[in-house]
Amino acid sequence: GDSVTQMEGPVTLSEEAFLTINCTYTATGYPSLFWYVQYPGEGLQLLLKATKADDKGSNKGFEATYRKETTSFHLEKGSVQVSDSAVYFCALGTGGFKTIFGAGTRLFVKA
Amino acid sequence: DVKVTQSSRYLVKRTGEKVFLECVQDMDHENMFWYRQDPGLGLRLIYFSYDVKMKEKGDIPEGYSVSREKKERFSLILESASTNQTSMYLCASSPPLEKYEQYFGPGTRLTVT
User: Fold this and answer.
1) By the 8 A CB rule, do A84 and A73 touch?
2) A74, B87, B91, B104: which is deepest, by most CB within 10 A?
3) Does A99 contact B58 at a Cβ distance shorter than 8 Å?
């Protein structure tokens, strides 16, 4: 069945470091892909999305490119801040009402 | 500012109790969802609703039921709480044409003792 696999955390970085969180997926058809972020004590928020191959989603300095050939949607940011500390979820929608979420990757950014 | 609110942030219940978790959204969204979030498992869909009085089972509906009598409100019911239902419960809503772009509430951390 459809699934999402993302790198295990926690990921610990110093402020201004480069961030990559890997995400790969298995899906039939042409899914839409998403990154959600969950800050401490809050629900998830949509961070960015891409709906077709080669689309690049971007928001708040984060980017991810929909790579159909490698079935990947890796999240990147050039310079992280302490305020980026959160849990990041990769997700896909393949039709119907179900969104399939990855297990989440916790990011800690040290000052 | 759009909002999804959940009735409690923390709840402690005893085994066998009937538990009600309430969710209200103010965005006039047709779609509403209940998930549980457990460490290492991500989010798992319990039930969803795409219209008033309509409901569909998600991946883990056993031990749960739902009610949607009004568009803005979606309730999750644990008929007889058990310790394995200790978890974080998240409610979400989405508009009809952007069903994967979900707005989440802050969650209810339920402990069943």
Assistant:
1) no
2) B91
3) no
Answer whether A81's CB lies under 8 Å from A110's CB.
no
Nearest to A24 by CA among A87, A62, A74, A75: A74
Can you tell me the distance from the alpha carbon of B40 to that of B17, in angstroms, rounded to the nearest whole number? 27
In this predicted model, what pLDDT tens digit does every residue of A78-103 receive, in sequence order? 999 999 999 999 999 977 778 999 99
pLDDT digits (tens, 9 = 90+) for A11-22: 999 999 999 999
Asked if B104's CB is within 8 angstroms of A104's CB, the reply is no
- 3-state SS assignment for residue B85: helix
Distances (CA, A) of B1 to A62, B25, B103: 23, 11, 11
| Nearest neighbour of B90 by CB, restricted to A32, A43, A103 | A43
Q: Chain B window 63-102: which residues touch A at a Cβ cutoff of 8 Å?
A: 90, 92, 99-102
Maximum distance among all alpha carbons in chain A? Answer: 43
A9 touches chain B (CB under 8 A): no
Calculate how close chain A gets to B13, using CA atoms only, in Å.
21
CB A6 within 8 A of CB A73: no
Which pair of structure tokens corresponds to residue B87? 């978890």
- Shortest CA distance from A39: residue in chain B: B106
Write the residue in A32, A43, A97 that is nearest to B31 by C-beta.
Answer: A97
